[in-house]
Amino acid sequence: MAKVNDPIVVRLNRDVTGPTLSFIDVGTGMSPEIIEEVYGIIFESTKRDNNDALGAYGIGSKTPLAYGNGSFFVTTRVNGIEYGYSIYAGQISPEIDLMYEKPTTEHNGTEVKVPIIEKDLSMFTQEINRQLYYFDNIIFEGFHELGFKNINNKYTIYHGKEFIYRTDEGNSLDPNIHICIGRVAYPINYTSLGLSSYGLNIPIAIKANIGDVDVTMNREALEYNESTRDFIIKKIDLIKKELMSMYEKQCSKIQTVEDYLIHLSGKSLLKIRKKDVLNITPIIYNQTKVKFANFKYDLLRPILDNTKIIECFYFYRTYGQRSSKYDDESNEVYKDTYLGVKKLVNGYSLQKDFVRKLIKQSYLASKHKRFYVFIKQPYTHDMDFMAETIAKKFGTTLTDEVKKEIIALYHETVSYVESYTMNYDSIIVPQAFIDLKKQKNKLKEYSKKILKVKYGNDFTGKRNYDTISIEKLSLFHGKIFYGTNDENDKIKSSHTIFKTVFGDKHIANIYDSKKTNKRGIMFLRTNPSNLKYIKLLRNSYHIDLFPVMMLRRKFTTLTESITIARIKQQYSDIDEYLRHKSFEKIDTEIAKANQTVVIEMEKLNKKVVDFSRIRIEKLLSDLRMTIDSDFPAQKEIDYLTNISKKNQPFFSLFNFNADNIRHNNTVQELLKKVLIK
After folding, report:
1. Do residues 173 and 127 lie in contact, with contact meaning Cβ atoms separated by under 8 Å?
2. In terms of Cα–Cα distance, which of 584, 552, 568 is closest to 668?
3. In total, how many domains does the chain have?
4. Average pLDDT in the 606-629 region?
5. Which positions ≥6 away from 51 have C-beta within 8 Å?
6. E strands, 527-620, in order
7. Do 172 and 268 have their domain in common?
8. CA 121 to each of CA 8, 200, 358, 397: distance values in angstroms, whole numbers, following the listed order
9. Is residue 94 located within the same domain as residue 132?
10. Cross-strand partners of 111
């Protein structure tokens, strides 16, 4: 017999012959004599009166004979020999055929394999789940793969003193209290016992030993006699007391109002383990009978409600956008609850009377779509009057003890609110916001002011200007770069560079309605007297800021583009003989320098923008931007340039193509002799 703690594998498999169900243990195995004793004799059992091993009548081992074709297979290993048996129903007793016998090095153990009819597969899995529900030494294999996902190894079994509970969400065996004898569960027919199941709808099992109650011979049901009735009634009473004791121990950890309200949200749940809970509503439905050993508001418990405590001591005002049914459950929406205060990121409270300040209100509105200010109820300034008011509100008799609890509740609530909200009085409005507010007020004051402007793409010398109001200009949401008429060159250069580097699809004037988004850009110039109005716009910047704001990310590309344009020009000025790839036949040092230059030029070519170097250099110079980009092969190209200049008089004497170097040995020898380095 296997040890009690050794796991047993229950395996569901499907092969070419159909589904099979195997029971595998790693016990001692069975010798031929034991095989004959266990499977060959009806009513022979080795497990009578044993709570650790199931069985009593010797019927269980032969049950496969009464199913299907009346046969099953046993493979067993004992003392280095493996035996394979076919067992089937005979006319008088079971027949046992030894199919094979062979040496083995595997551990002792036994596998019983039963063929299953396909249409019975679902029924078998249901019965396996029922029969093995409280076995904690079972490993299930193959069930999930064949679609029976409720049978798995993701469960734990909790053993109380008087009950057993399996934590297996979605796989409840029985919604009512049932009984587990040894490890096998049985439903309880309360009607047969003359009892009501009311208040017993808790999915746990009475813990019972074999022999505590009587069962039928086929072990399928309880024997409903007087002793069974007395045993079950006594056990149910003990279980209720045990669960209540566990629950009150859990409640003893509750000390604060927050603890208590969190408890109420799951008040019917008993924590069995860290993540496992059991709903025991039928036992603790009346919370007033539950003892909270360390909770100091015992007299106020009937009136402590998540939606009522705050309003006892505070009222609040909402500023900003109004609440609507479309508001989400974000931490910016207050739901009138005590616990909801903790989640707020836009709650403010006062320690003194509320004096609203417009600039502070405006500042907070700019930070939040909506914000809340919690203000103490007027009667909280007098503790006696406050206690009397709250007691009357809830219809509670104001005793000294009740008054003491109300005052303590007030102080805890104030501490809670002030911990999870910001102090309204301590909010300091930044000077930048004050300045911006003043700027907006001025902008509103001058909104009808008409300005004469020219846009960046108007470089004519004509004196005619476009006119636009400050109000209309403020509708443009992109960036506005401005300057005076004296800064026309800067504006023109900036406009040209932006168009060259980014294209003109985002360049706008006030008539381009499609470009009035945040990605648009506008260049304009006007008279110095108009600058004070344009500066009022939040998105307006002097033209001197254009390089820093718009070209910072593109500056490397610009400088590299200018560099490669300069290098290309310098390289093209080098004599073609020196640049020819066959020059290595004349001088390997020069050829190597040339190859280095060509490679570095190709690298830069992949990253640059194609435009006129002289033009961009001038534009950047107009903007006072310094161009300084190193060319990795500058030393080599200067070396080639120097040699080209030294040998220019000689190279000018040749009147044939540089390709002739490759095939003309005479030219090669001549160059070797006259080349000046």
Report:
1. no
2. 584
3. 5
4. 56
5. 182, 209, 210
6. 540-542
7. yes
8. 20, 32, 75, 66
9. yes
10. 24, 75
More confident residue, 372 or 217: 372
653 and 589 co-located in one domain: yes
Any idea what DSSP says for residue 36? Answer: H
Residue 96 · residue 87 · CB < 8 Å:
yes
What is the total residue count of the chain?
677
Residue span of the structural domain in which 163 resides: 155-295
Report which secondary-structure segment, H or E, holds 375: strand 370-376
Q: Quick check: 47 and 55 in contact, CB under 8 A?
A: yes
Integer angstrom CA distances of residue 222 from 49, 130, 166, 192, 193: 17, 15, 21, 10, 11
Of the candidates 550, 574, 595, which is a domain's last residue? 550
Tokens of 31: 């010798």
**Cβ contacts of 221 within 8 Å, gap of 6 or more:** 186, 215
Question: For the sheet containing 163-167, what is the strand order?
Answer: 156-159, 163-167, 205-208, 178-181, 184-186
Residue 571 structure tokens: 């390289």
Is 301 part of a structural domain of the chain?
no
251-296 pLDDT per residue, tens:
999 999 999 999 988 888 999 887 888 999 888 877 778 899 999 9
490 token code pair: 């800067």
Residues 161 and 291 in one domain: yes
Supply the mean pLDDT for the chain.
85
DSSP for 160-195, written as a single string: -SSEEEEE-TT--S-SS-EEEETTEEE---TTTTT-
- Which of 249, 265, 295 finishes a domain? 295
Nearest to 475 by CA among 432, 513, 437, 439: 513
DSSP-derived secondary structure letter, 63: G
Q: What is the distance between the alpha carbons of residues 4 and 60, in angstroms, rounded to a whole number?
A: 18
Burial of residue 324 (CB within 10 Å: 0-12, 13-18, 19+) is exposed
Whether residue 187 contacts residue 178, with contact meaning beta carbons closer than 8 Å, is answered with: yes
Amino acid at 115: P
User: Which among 317, 420, 319, 323 is positioned nearest to 376, based on CA atoms?
Assistant: 317
Q: How many CB atoms lie within 10 A of CB 662?
A: 13
Helix H segments across 347-464? 358-367, 383-393, 400-420, 431-445
Q: How far is the C-alpha of 598 from the C-alpha of 585, rounded, in Å? A: 18
Side chain identity at 240, as an amino acid letter? K
Q: What is the mean pLDDT of residues 567-572?
A: 88
22 and 137 in a single domain? The answer is: yes
Tokens 């200007």, residue located: 465
State whether 50 and 17 are in the same domain. Answer: yes
Q: Are residues 583 and 637 in the same domain?
A: yes
The amino acid sitting at 152 is: N
Q: What is the amino acid identity at position 561?
A: S
Structure tokens at 469: 């109001």
The residue whose two tokens read 């004196």 is: 463
DSSP state of 308: T
Query: Cα–Cα distance between 281 and 10 in angstroms, integer?
Result: 35
Distance CA 304, CA 170 (A): 34
Task: Write the DSSP symbol of residue 471.
Answer: H
Would you tell me the crossing angle of helices 488-502 and 613-622 to the nearest 10 degrees? 140
Q: Residue 590 corresponds to which tokens in the numbers above?
A: 């020069």
Main-chain phi, psi angles of 450, to 5 degrees: -100, 130
Residue 467 bridge partners (DSSP): 452
At 197, is the pLDDT very low, low, confident or very high (cuts 50, 70, 90)?
confident
Tokens in use for 559?
């400088």
The CATH number given to whatever domain includes residue 115 is: 3.30.565.10
Contact 160, 111 (CB under 8 A): no
Say yes or no: 329 and 376 in one domain: yes
| Least confident window among 351-355, 369-373, 377-381, 643-647 | 351-355
What percent of the chain shows pLDDT beyond 90? Answer: 44
The predicted pLDDT at position 460 comes to 59
